[in-house]
Amino acid sequence: MRKKSFGNLLLTALIISALNCGTSIAETNQIINTFGEDTPSNNTNPFLQTYQSSSSIGESLIEPDYSQEIILLQNMLKKSPNDSALALKLAQAYERNYNQSDAIQQYKQVISMSKNNPEMLATLENIFKSKLTNKPNSPILNATLGSIYKLEGKYEDALSSYQKALNLAPSNKTIRLEVADLYTLTNAYDKALPFYNTVLLSTPLNNSVRLKKAECLASLNRMPEAQAEYKMLIKNDPKNENIKIALYQTLKTASPQKEIVDSIYPEYKDTPLAVDGYIKVAQLLKNNKQIDDSIEYYKSALLINPNSADSYIELSELYNTKGDKQSAKDSIAAAQKILPQDDPVIRKKYNKMIALTADDPLNEALELIKNGLYEDAISVYEAISPRTIDITLGIASCYQYLNNTQEALKYLNQALSMDENNPDTLYYFAFLYVNKEDYSKAKPYIQKALKIAPDNQKIKKLNKFIVDQEVNTLQEKAFYAFDTQNYKDALNLLNKVIALAPSTGDAYYYRGLVYVAQNKNILAINDFKTTLKLNPNYALAYYSLGNAYDATESFQSALAAYKKFTALNKEQNEYSTYATQRINSILKHKK
Question: Percentage of the chain with pLDDT > 70?
Answer without folding.
Answer: 88
